[in-house]
Amino acid sequence: MLQGLLKSTPRLSEPGVQVEGQRCGLVAIVGKPNVGKSTLLNALVGQKISITSRKAQTTRHRITGMHTQGATQFVFVDTPGFQTLHGNALNKSLNKAVQGAVSDVDLILLVVEAGSFTPADARVLALLGKDIPTILVANKLDNIHRRGDIAPWLQEMQQKHAFAEFVPMSAKNPKDVERLLAVCEGFLPEQAWWYGEDELTDRSEKFLASELVREKLFRLTGDELPYTSTVVIDKFEEEPPQRKGQKRLLRIAATIVVERDGHKAMVIGDKGERIKRIGMETRVELEKLADAKVFLELWVKVRSGWADDAARVRSFGYE
Ligand SMILES: Nc1nc2c(ncn2[C@@H]2O[C@H](COP(=O)(O)OP(=O)(O)OP(=O)(O)O)[C@@H](O)[C@H]2O)c(=O)[nH]1
Description:
Shape: globular
Domain KH type-2: 246-304
CATH superfamily of the largest domain: P-loop containing nucleotide triphosphate hydrolases
Helix content: 25-40%
Main location: cytoplasm
Function: An essential GTPase that binds both GDP and GTP, with rapid nucleotide exchange. Plays a role in 16S rRNA processing and 30S ribosomal subunit biogenesis and possibly also in cell cycle regulation and energy metabolism.
Distance between the termini: 11 Å
Structural class: alpha/beta
Bound molecules: guanosine-5'-triphosphate
CATH architecture of the largest domain: 3-Layer(aba) Sandwich
Low-confidence stretches: 1-15, 81-86
Subunit structure: Monomer.
Region (G3): 78-81
Strand content: 15-25%
Order of helices and strands: HEHEEHEHEHEHHEEHHEH
């Protein structure tokens, strides 16, 4: 499991020597779909490493992002939205990933929307043990117009769980994000850092490529496309720069897998306009993130019912 790996294999490129006062620890970010977990992770890390979209359930993998500030290194774990509506194989795999993510961390951030606590939030809370300190992050505070309304709600929240702290905030407000980091710091154990100071994620460029295609796919198809559509990377090859001063080249081929012919037409768009745009926007962003030249080929395939088929879910990379 990734967390186990992180704990047992500190990077040797780091001095690895305990500098006095150095802190380092794992922080899990949990919450039902669409509460802003990915937005928060990106803000905490300071760069985009997890995709965000208005469509619920866009985060399917655990993503770690690191942030090193002062003497402290935060290692964040993003989790899939806790999906409670369907019991298909994809969702079972998602729920297992959430439980795995919270079992072995130093701190949990339970993200909810400020002023709201639905049965879906309660189901996520029920997954959290009592032993790991948990901060209630009341996100999207900017949507609450009368701040006075939040005090009685916070009091209600105190009855739900022995939260270590309450942080009403907006993931889109950098000052709030700084405040949250300061609150988290005190919960991390004193130990040597696991990563270099500048490292942001341990996810591969191949993974980031598939995440970017998925993000553009959902952004550009709006609410029409079901979340069961996914992206598989068929080819990922790297060529060194041809001449000095040139960038290396990434040759990528990816397939967007959808459930119906109608969805395929939707992804391709009128005269191929939409898929062209998905490809173009992915390429531009990946070139920036990877600091490389990117050739990207995109395909669309129909595989009906894949989200109900456990073997296929595994073959697409969801444990
Ligand atoms: N107004 C407001 N919107 C926010 C805030 N944080 C996130 N959002 C929006 O909420 C939506 C969902 O955000 P995500 O970060 O994708 O949510 P998530 O919890 O990771 O979602 P899943 O991947 O479905 O689990 C996006 O449209 C964000 O722009 C906030 O502080 N204020």
